[in-house]
């Protein structure tokens, strides 16, 4: 029982790690499958940003998509509950921002960006839950 208690204390002391720019393995640029091809981090309901980005498949986005989308569900305390990232068309990016699901105690923030693997960080508040493009739409 003492050993289990010590292990539990150690696990609580470990802080979650986020995925950073230094974690990206850059490959030599290859030819894209179509003109202006791009990639996004993609995952469905990952536990946090690190788990999403760490295991995201390295594939080009399908034709008809143009932006990288991120949805971050978190507790009011800021702790991640779920992360979803994917390639999307313009219409999926027209309502970025944060909403509160008060009866469940969650905040859901969404953002979109333009550019290959631009969706590394997560939206956490109204300051970063935005739609950023490389040029005016």
TrEMBL record:
Which UniProt keywords are given for this protein, alphabetically ordered?
Cell membrane, Disulfide bond, Glycoprotein, GPI-anchor, Lipoprotein, Membrane, Signal
Check the record and name the CDD domains matching this protein: TFP_LU_ECD_LYPD6
**Is-annotated flag, keyword Iron-sulfur?**
no
Q: Which GO terms describe its cellular component?
A: plasma membrane; side of membrane
- How is this protein positioned relative to the membrane? Lipid-anchor; GPI-anchor
An annotated Gene Ontology molecular function:
acetylcholine receptor inhibitor activity
Gene3D superfamilies for the chain: CD59
Q: What Pfam families does the record point to?
A: UPAR_LY6_2
The signal peptide stretch is 1-16
Keyword Glycoprotein annotated: yes
GO biological process: any one?
positive regulation of canonical Wnt signaling pathway
Subcellular location(s): the record lists: Cell membrane
> What's the protein here called?
LYPD6 protein
């Amino acid at each position: 029982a003492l050993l289990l208690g010590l292990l539990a204390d150690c696990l609580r002391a470990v802080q979650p790690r986020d995925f950073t720019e230094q974690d990206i393995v850059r490959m030599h640029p290859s030819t894209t499958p179509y003109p202006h091809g791009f990639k996004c981090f993609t995952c469905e309901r990952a536990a946090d940003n690190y788990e999403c980005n760490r295991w995201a498949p390295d594939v080009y986005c399908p034709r008809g998509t143009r932006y990288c989308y991120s949805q971050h569900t978190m507790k009011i305390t800021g702790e991640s509950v779920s992360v979803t990232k994917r390639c999307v068309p313009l219409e999926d990016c027209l309502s970025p921002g944060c909403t509160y699901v008060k009866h469940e105690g969650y905040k859901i923030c969404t953002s979109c960006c333009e550019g290959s693997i631009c969706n590394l960080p997560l939206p956490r508040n109204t300051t970063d839950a935005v739609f950023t493009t490389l040029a005016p739409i």
